[in-house]
Amino acid sequence: MKMKSYMKEKKITATVTGVRWERIFLYLDVQITFADPKEREGELCFYAVDQMYVSPGMFHVTGITDDVYHLKLNITNSGENVCMPSGEYRIIVCRNDCQLAECETGISIVECIEDFSRTFLFHGYSKSYTITFYAEEEMDTLPFRFCILAALETDIDFPVRTRLFRELRLVENLKNTWGSKKNVVRMIYAFFCKLYASRRAHTVLFMSEQNDSIRSNLKAVSDRMIERGMDREYQIYFSARSAASDSHSLWNWIKLLKKMASSGIIFLDDHAVMLNWLKLSEDTKLIQLWHAGAGFKSSGYSRWGHKGGPGPSSCHRQYSFGIAGSKNIAPFFSEVWGINDEQVLPTGMPRMDEFLSEDYRAQKTKELYEAYPVCKGKKVMLFAPTYRGMNKKEANYPFERIDFAGLYEACGSEYVVLFKMHPWVKDAVPIEEKYKDKFIDVGRYPNINDLFYITDLLVTDYSSNIFEYSLMKKPMLFFAYDKFQYAFSRGFHRDYEEAAPGKVCYTFEELLEAFRKKDFEYEKVERYVEHHFDYIDSGASDRVIDWIVLGKIPEDIQADLERVRRENEHRRTLDFLPEGYWRDEKHKKAVKEEEA
Hints:
Elements: E1 4-5, E2 12-22, E3 25-34, E4 45-49, E5 57-65, E6 68-74, E7 87-95, E8 98-102, E9 104-105, H1 107-110, E10 118-122, E11 127-135, E12 144-152, H2 163-177, H3 181-195, E13 203-208, H4 216-227, E14 235-240, H5 250-262, E15 265-268, E16 285-288, E17 319-323, H6 330-337, E18 344-345, H7 352-355, H8 358-371, E19 379-383, H9 404-411, E20 415-419, E21 439-441, H10 448-451, E22 457-460, H11 466-469, E23 476-479, H12 483-489, H13 496-499, E24 503-505, H14 508-517, H15 523-532, H16 540-549, H17 555-573, H18 585-595
């Protein structure tokens, strides 16, 4: 649809007066000046328009202050779960599908406009995604422009490599494409997809590429499906393997690909590297049941540009839906996965169904006191930080940061301490013999959630274990000795001090002081629970099954999904070509007929 243009009438002018970045989000402040106050009536839309005069993305208006529009654009998700494509962009202001103005560069930012440019590195820093700002020089105005370029490291060397090297490189490239293992896997999967197409309507796969067993949310949902007798109607498959650290045989791959090709729904927990390059069948839904309730550390696209971050076309792009504890925290998950907020369903965490069961709690409490009798009659501090290091192989914790003597003294006769390191940390906690009457390493205990039942104070840092523990309505302390380094290397997806449901301590002495004085800032816990939980019950697994497997998504959520679909579809039809221009004769004829 060719849009009408009223730019020459200058009903409004739009000037970019501020530019800033927050992780993958580009924020702009745009001052709107109205020639006639009546023009304030009606909603304004801000489109990023490329050199072909089409718009692959629209800025969201987050607020308006005295005719200054505050805009936001996620450069990793233009609205259709893809990055903003390469191109040169202008911002066009519209109302009711009519072009009113093109954004200009404010005088206050002209001289520093290039300083707002950003480069996001990925694929081992061999590729980059750059956003460069500039003001295009014209006679009367300074149109606001930005250029997006996706680039990769070339094979060019100086001096130029020999002819022999280039020929060998050609052979290597052919081997790595047509003869690659990935290509063989794709062909096997495509064959099975055709062979087992009829099975997909009633087959569900629970899949983990991070663990060698089905755990957490995957186990909760699969167990509940079987409890409801759904295994009589659905074929339920399981696949669990540590793909990141183990190599697998061709036969192992064939078995997995057969299950995937047969499944209409695949439930996944955490990242599956193979789905970075293997495209699933269009009639297969991929559902992310990530175990993280909502911690602080950035993951996925929220840490794009950092070491270990995803590429533009990662596994996350294939998700039909993900889940979260509440609508309030859906944006955290959608940012991580590079999908729309509306695709994150606030079902609650299935693994918490058991956690919230009174019978289960009573049973586990009894078992824990039998396993750790030193806890009877005492208050329990659970020291449970996340790991340090970039991945499973590098995972560690600097135990020298813990003042064991000071902590032992601070416990007095009131407390004992359970140390529960992240499962990836293989080293045992170095507890000296003289401290073992109060300190216990429970690293091998399988489920940290069970330990919360007998815990009176949780000490952690950036872990998502605060999500479950918050429902105990008990205090927490945060030992963030490396907050600034951690923020630089991993990044936070929200303000740490503001979001932490307890007192933040930066040295162990500060931690001990807060512990002695019981200075926990407990009031933050109630606010955290209210924000992060839409449901506090044992029905999350049923909601996942009903909403996703049976397709009974609540009407209000379904309406939001449909609205986003319509908005994207409508934007794709908009044509921003200036008046008097056509793409070709066929386009010219179609426009004339539309105007008639």
